[in-house]
Amino acid sequence: MIPPPPAPTRPTNRLAREKSPYLLQHQHNPVDWHPWGEEAFAKARAENKPVFLSIGYSTCHWCHVMERESFEDAHLADYLNQHFISIKVDREERPDVDKIYMTFVQATTGQGGWPLNCFLTPDRHPFFGGTYFPPIARQGRSSFLDVLRHLAELWGARPEDLRHNAGQLRDQLAALTTQEPARDELPDPAGLARAARSFMAAYDPAHGGFGGAPKFPQPSQPAFLLRHAARTGDATALRMVVHTADEMAAGGIHDQLGGGFARYSVDARWLVPHFEKMLYDNAQLAGLYLDLHAATGEARHAEVARDILRYVQRDMTHPGGGFYSAEDADSEGKEGKFYCWTRKEVAKLLSEAEFRVAARHWGLTEAGNFVDHSDPDPLPHQNVLHIADPALTEAERPLLASARARLFAARAHRVRPHLDDKILASWNGLMLGAFARAYALLGEESYREVAERNLAFLQAHLWDAVTRTLHHRWRDGERDQVQLLDAYAFLLAGVIDLYEATLAPRHLAFATDLADAVLARFYDGVAGGFWQSADAPDLILRIKEDHDGAEPSGNSVATLALSRLGAITERADYRQAAERTLQLFGTRLRQSPQAVPYLLLAADFAATTPRRVVLAGAPDHPEFRRLLRAVHGVYQPGKVVLGTTGPVEPFARTLPVPATPLVYLCTGTACQPPTRDPAQIQAWLR
Fold it and tell me: Is residue 666, in this structure, part of any structural domain at all?
């Protein structure tokens, strides 16, 4: 038998040499792409051409759409190659690059998003930008080719005018992103209450959440309201958070079969998501549901957290212990195809009794509830599973469980969405913290094991102990050379969570190494606050990120983490850096609290003297774990937990190791008599 001829080799561009899954998606485009770097800008200067900068990420639906429509079009690519130097950037690998040009586009157009497309002078200064450009003009949007032609003509006719204007825009951008030196007082309880009221005013009483469609979880918003409720006894705020969490868990944004949450819903009901799943969303949501379980005692919140963590363990974990970044919305070129069902498909897979329960519970209809309007040939009759009718009899529960198992098994044979398998120190820090907190609260040993393996992976592949350097991305045996605040701050927060969950001194020692590196590399000792990136010659600006969106900012996470670590170690430099950062952003906290909900968590922690729980005793003693579990069983975000060894505060180091572990409960310089009574510990914490 004659073997078939080999498939023709598709030509590649420079991106074939990169590690980013997003850049590799574009390696076969006819566009002559460059990665971000001096080579591209040197070529632009030598050839006197403007730069076309396109930023996105590998699981971005509209990035895929624009690639199909424009970047794979040979005629359009030829025009780009003739008149521009084209650069592709993965915004998840280089959030510092993305932040600069996203700020420019938002300031000049009033909106932002991905794909982010920006036109620069050869010295990196932006002069025009936007997001998605269609292949043909429609709905008031110029076609992408029309935009290219217009800008190429302008550059050919008046290049010096464009350079001059771009320089002025760069100066305006610098002014827009510069904060004044710290003068503000730290937020007080009255200011925190005002911020809480501003969140509550945006609450959606019908479907939960804060604001309208499209609706993002933004877990730090309900997390702040939960802290406010605990501190003030505001039952209305607590009810809003519980309702929001319940509605999200019941919605199509929550994968009812496989666990985990999609990035956002296109509607206000949490029903139809953009189906991509991001590690950072799921890490923060796991933390929110764990907090709710601790605050309310309701088992359903713990089960949602377990559901997220099962998904991450099963589908998002590298064999060595690192966590992958994201899963795509699309499979086989269709958004949601992996996740959606027709009513007929489900009926064929289930018994008649199972189908009756499943169809009612998950709201299956003949027409379906999802149409991909970005697709010229959308799949018909697609149902996003959601809990339309939660009521189940005892006889129906096993039928639904069986139906779920059958559908999950059938779904496993479908073509999975693309997996972005790069491992980012920043997002791994968030998920490390979620697993550590789950172990602390729920006591399941497997969660501690996952957290410990993850930290060992990050220390082996992304941390240089000699230089105290944390690299941001690892993939396929290679790490990058980028130094980002998010990587250090997010991992610092996760390691503090793991220390408090285990009281292992080695974790606290590593946390202080990370904190010292944060201060040395990113802290502005003159004005306060933290730079987003180390001193990088490839950037036109250094920025202090001050916005908590779907991801919290590095400034916010660093501030809370350093406040906590300062209370554990009594290091004044940690506490002072956190306080000065809160002061620097004090006006932002007062005037735009919705923009900085995670920073409000840090302000809430700093508003009162933290309660210190010191556990003295041998960690391998059975009583040690029982007492530690009691400590973590109470929702008290204003506490820190520490042992008596390692770089802990001086009082803790003076305590003897008793034969049977003891707990010391302290505030400021005053401590309660030591106790072994879990009920007494929890009553004091409440």
Answer: yes
